[in-house]
Amino acid sequence: MDMNKRIRLELRNLTPPDVKELVLDNCRSNCGKIEGLTEEFVNLELLSLINVGLLSVSNLPKLPKLKKLELSDNRISGGLDVLAEKLPNLTHLSLSGNKLKDIDTLEPLKKLDSLKSLDLFNCEVTNLHDYRECVFTLLPQLTYLGGFDRDDKEASDSDAEVDGLDEEDEEEGEREEIKEEERYKGRERKKEG
User: Fold this and answer.
1) 154: β partners
2) Could you report the per-residue pLDDT of 165-182, keeping only the tens digit for each?
3) In what order do the strands lie in the sheet with 46-48?
4) What does DSSP assign to residue 98?
5) Whole-angstrom Cα distance, residue 124 to residue 120?
6) Alpha carbon distance 149, 101 (integer Å)
7) In angstroms, what CA-CA distances link 69 with 72, 93, 157, 189?
8) pLDDT, tens digit (0-9, with 9 covering 90-100), for 2-17
9) What is the DSSP string of 50-85?
10) Among residues 120, 112, 64, which one has the least CA distance to residue 95?
11) How many other CB atoms sit within 10 Å of the CB of residue 51?
């Protein structure tokens, strides 16, 4: 199935702004490019394009809320500057199984200030001497490379997930709201008394 058809199928009765996650794994991409994805997908947080024959991400639309991008098992060899231009809030990026050969091709990722997890498993770049050290030096914002931090500690489950930390923040926010409500009710009771 080609990418355009798959996107239409995924949408069913939804409009693009309704979609937060879009999984297009194993579709066919025409000419090795992304198709059918537009800037209308303003609320997209996760995009998965595993094994779709991509050669380039050049026509990726601007997706301001995208946090996690899966590009494993494609044939991308460069042009990563587009990611920095179009995905300002990206936190997790997987490029495993692509044709990335040297550290210089990763340099544009420096501009992704929020990027904390990068996966390059099965890319030629991982065969370079001191590859991990070089990548962590090049991308100081990174916490995890291939699921492990600078000290070879494995990512915890909450860090491995896009919104693991957000859930804790939400719970904290809900607790604060409840406290605030209780304080308000207490004030109202005093007025009545």
Assistant:
1) 148
2) 444 444 445 555 554 455
3) 21-23, 46-48, 68-70, 92-94, 117-119, 144-145
4) S
5) 9
6) 22
7) 9, 5, 18, 51
8) 999 999 999 999 999 9
9) TTS--S--TTPPP-TT--EEE--SS---S-THHHHH
10) 120
11) 16
**Reduced to 3 DSSP states, what percent helix, strand and coil does the chain have, rounded to the nearest 5?**
40, 10, 50
CB 58 within 8 A of CB 33: yes
pLDDT at 22: 97
| CA–CA dist 36, 26 (Å, integer) | 15
Between CA 177 and CA 175 the distance in angstroms is 5
Q: Measure Cα distances from 80 to 15, 35, 144, 155 in Å.
A: 29, 17, 19, 24
